[in-house]
Amino acid sequence: MEFFGVRILGFNDETLRKVVLSAAVLAVAFGVRALLAVVVGFGTGVSRHTIWVRKSIRLVFGCIATLLLLSIWFDNPARLSTFLGLVAAGLAFASQNAVLSVAGYFVIVFGKTFDIGDRIQIGEVRGDVLDIGLLKTTVMEMGVPGPLQSASPHWVASRQYTGRVVTLTNAEVFKQPTFNYTRNFNFLWEEMSLPLRYDADFRLAESIVLAAVCEATADIIDAGHRQLADMRERYLIHASDLEPRAYLRLTDNWVEMRVRFLVKNFGVRDVKDFVSRRVLERFHAEGIELASTTVELVRVPRVEVREVPTDDRARQDADAPPTQPH
């Protein structure tokens, strides 16, 4: 084909028709896909269902457009099979991570490893899943509780958002263990440690702590019992009692009271803050003191300073034995 007197190699009338037809297919596919994506969920807001419906629409129309483009450009089945074989071989050699990420996508979605909105941990990344793409997963990062700070330093010492958005390749599900906080059981067992003096009233302290915990987690325990009953119908699980429990352990410095209780996956810090405030108020009212490793000076020792007169100081120096030469 000639264009302004210049002959373009490999470009003829048939190729031009294929280019125009391909552009029309892409325009229609992208237009219909965008229209359906806007219509889905219109007036109801964003939800997990609408997100997955929009993803399905994009995937379906992407596959249809790809098949139409292949049909336009490779009308000979032999040429198409040769082309697909070369592409597959090139991807397997040059883009192993991309192929592994696509395989990871199917493991995540169809294997139900995690879903959009789940709270997960993969390697050192912890947070809530914002999006699951064909190659990558996007996570809103959360902080790490205090006892785990040394292993993974964060400036937020709790399971709350840090503000960072982390992107992971889907291939990570094959390389590292995946922890899901919300997949089948939307609760966690949390623990708080209280150091008590050996002369403290342990029974009274235990009743105060358990009363505060029960006040903060009453509705949580009821919901946990219902969800645990559903899990027992699907899994062989031997879960412990969901009611709060307190345990004592003797140490060299104090008696450690560790209380174990059930919390939701979200809002753990609020529950622990409520319990801590109630316990401190009741301990102060009952005269129960918490032990610590600090040193308390009850009374500063009396120090007497006297000034020696000059004549007495000279007399003491004269009476002192002479020093021996070295």
What does this structure look like?
- It is a single chain.
- The chain has 8 helices and 10 strands.
- The chain is α+β, with helices and mostly antiparallel strands.
- A hairpin with a 4-residue loop joins strand 9 (245-250) and strand 10.
- The longest helix is centred in the last third of the chain and has 33 residues, at 202-234.
- The protein is elongated and about 120 Å long.
- The protein starts with a strand and ends in a 7-residue tail after the last helix.
How are the strands of the largest sheet arranged? 6-5-4-3-7
Tell me the β content. 15-25%
CATH uppermost class of the largest domain: Alpha Beta
Based on secondary structure, the structural category is alpha+beta
Order of helices and strands: EEHHHHEEEEHEEHEEHH
Fraction of helical residues: 40-55%
The largest sheet, given as strand count, sense and whether it forms a barrel, is: 5 strands, antiparallel
CATH topology of the largest domain: Alpha-Beta Plaits
What distance lies between the first and last C-alpha atoms, to the nearest angstrom?
Answer: 112 Å
Low-confidence stretches: none
Number of helices: 8
Count the strands? 10
The total number of structural domains is 3
Principal-axis shape: elongated
Determine the mean pLDDT: 79
Reported CATH architecture of the largest domain: 2-Layer Sandwich
Q: Radius of gyration over alpha carbons?
A: 35 Å
